[in-house]
Design a protein that fits this description.
about 0% helix, about 150 residues, about 0% strand
Length: about 150
Amino acid sequence: MEKKYPMLPTQVSPAMQPPACPPCPPCPPPQQLSPAMMPPQQVSPAMMPPQQVSPAQVGPTQMEAPVVSPTQQNVQENIINHIVPHIHPTNTTIVNTHVFKHQHFFPQTTNVVNQAVNQEFICGPGPVAPAMMPPCPPPCPPPCPPRPKCWF
């Protein structure tokens, strides 16, 4: 917040006025000066000596040069919020691994084979005459029941 100074009063009481200055000594004779070195021709009322007044009278109010105090420094703090987005990306890779487990089987089967073996005997001449020999059993298709053996 800024501070404001009160306005200077336009009138000063006689008790506050400074004492009158003694008369100035006479000026030295003028010297020859170049126009650039010449003093200004106009004089401001602040540069004029105060007028002599008697104590019983109040003269016109004189405006003095202002007294300027050093500049007072004020600090006004402004807070400005800033949003800075920070992005942290993440990627997930899903790896599907297919595992093939090869199982080897060796099934074993059993086959049964029934074989028939045929033996043929020739019942022919021998020490006995063929007419006297008993006949051989007739052949039969498999499976054959047990056959009687030939007698020789």
